[in-house]
Design goal:
The chain is about 30% helix and about 25% strand. The protein contains 9 helices and 17 strands.
Length: about 350
Amino acid sequence: MKLIHCSDIHLDAVMSGLKDSNKAEERRNEILLTFVRMVRYAAKNNVKAILIVGDLFDSIRINPTTLDIVEKCIIGNPSIDFYYTAGNHEKEAFLAAMEDLPRNLKTFEDTKTYRYDEGITISSVSDPSELDLLPSDFNIVLYHGTIRPNAWAHRNIDYLALGHFHELREGSLGSRGRFCYSGCLEGRGFDECGEKGFVRLNIENGILEPVFMQASKRTIHEIRIDVSEAEGTGDADLLISEEIRTNGIPSDDLIKIVLTGVAKNEINTGFLSKKYEEDFYAVHIVDDTSVADMTDSDAEFDISLKGEFIRLVMDKDWTEDEKKAVIEMGTAALGGKSIL
């Protein structure tokens, strides 16, 4: 028996990480299309059931057009059972928005456990203490939220299909079962880097074979660049370019560039953002550098705002420790970093 485990799709989400409103709308449509493509994959590969473990939609306000597409996907594939449990974002709004539930959309409001002839059961509960599973069955349980694995262990669970976290996470449930967060289908912001997709499950003769399937239209890549040896923005640019070439990042993807180390001179992140936005779908630069100490002689000839600030501090009748602390906070603030 073949199944798909997915979660946290967040249809109609606000793409807060994208400055371009047209691209934000495009990404919303791409996430919906990725869901459609996943269902097509299931139909083509004789998948018996798709487990949607919460947060199919991003909020309780559901776009009618998006709802129509999702509903047509379900109705148009009667040979696939769609198991759905609500998440913390859409709550029960998805089910309430439909006039009539498709026959192949299985919820857990009235029935807590569904059984197949192969001795495979699919259940959902709000607490592991509610489970009453037969040890002779192959038992799959759906749950959206954070778990303590020990609380779910030794309850005859073979596969605990989880939702809530947006990256793939796996672990064991005692000697018998395993738990898995499938992660989201598409990264929506620059805090959701890496490959995204769903988990394909194949159960044969009581043996489970799970495989992660990359499904996202675009990947959000994170690269970390130590600029300690860079003399300035030009050197940082060269380091970034080399790292991009090494990783072979496609131009259709998104990049999060994290600058680290002790910067000898100020790095113009605005320039770097503009430059790489011409080469990639979207770019986000995070400046996590610390600023090298600037001596009195350095500050004397530095014409930047930072140099003027340091000169003002140096002229104060403060202790050296006080001057150092103020300079560290001030240069951090000038660089747009939090000083809390």
